[in-house]
Amino acid sequence: MPPAARKQRARRYDPSKTRAAVTTQFAHVQEAVRGLSDGQLALPTRVGDWTVRELVAHLSMAVGSVVSNLREPAPPQPETALLDWPFATAPLAAGIDDDTRALAAANDPGELLTRTAEQLAEALAAAPEDQDRLLVTRVGAMRLADHLVTRCVELVVHTDDLAAATGVEIPYDRQALATATRLLADALAIKAPGGSVEVRVPPFAVVQCVEGPKHTRGTPPNVVETDPLTWIRLATGRTAWAQELDAANVSASGERADIGDLLPVLS
Q1: Is the separation of the CB atoms in 124 and 133 below 8 Å?
Q2: pLDDT of residue 113
Q3: How far is residue 202's CA from residue 184's CA, in Å, rounded to a whole number?
Q4: Which residues contact 111 (CB under 8 A, 6 or more apart)?
Q5: Nearest Cα residue to 33 out of 101, 111, 96, 118
Q6: 219 exposure class (CB count in 10 Å sphere: 0-12, 13-18, 19+)
Q7: Mean pLDDT of the region 25-48
Q8: 115 vs 30, 64, 119, 177, CA distance in Å?
């Protein structure tokens, strides 16, 4: 992971709002899946060769990790900071894939989501509001509050995957969308530290990145601007920089504003 990930201070997220965002967005997923037919569950997705059924299982697994991790004894000290997480997940892809397929094969999607939602509500009700409660996660020991921020990213990214695969319109909890947007924008600033390019994702995030002359006042000479969902798709490799420029979903002005070679941030 980039060394800056351990040096840069992560922005603060309200733990109560993050908990509510995870719960609300997962409920939106439940509602969408409840109406899917067997044919829709068998549709392909843009996540490798997963079907919708496997994507749903992964969503359940991502949220269910909060439950399973809270059942384990707290580790003695943190190992992974929030800004480490975007760069720590790629090596785990094979194991996540295996677990997702096994979960999908063994469960009815709707029942799985219902069970996970009930367990999540119970686990969070019993969990302390203390931000420093530690969990053992796939990427190492993390604070509960930070792990829930990463669950917002997982939920928003895969809600978008689910909507793309099924054609079903699924709402986004505003706090979950904001959280995912901000964390992925901060990850870009870590991947390409500097101050020569300003990346704007209104209304949720503005970061500066890329080495070069730093902007201090007035209109920045290099500006990238896009909407939250387009940014999330770019940052996770769901779409391509050139494609979104051509579609006018991204504006980029200035000689240093081409950040296509820095994307995706989260793979």
Answers
A1: no
A2: 98
A3: 14
A4: none
A5: 111
A6: exposed
A7: 97
A8: 11, 9, 6, 24
CB burial class (10 A; 0-12, 13-18, 19+) of residue 73? exposed
Residue 4's pLDDT band (boundaries 50, 70, 90)?
very low
3 pLDDT more than 80: no
Q: Say whether pTM exceeds 0.85.
A: yes
Report the distance separating Cα 9 and Cα 82, nearest Å. 9
Nearest by Cα to 119 from 159, 71, 53: 71
CA-closest candidate to residue 157, choices 267, 15, 12: 267
Phi, psi (degrees; rounded to nearest 5) at 137: -120, 175
Dist CA 96 CA 89 (whole Å): 10
Cβ contact 181:205 at 8 Å:
yes
Cβ 189 vs Cβ 207: under 8 Å: yes
* Residue 165 · residue 44 · CB < 8 Å: yes
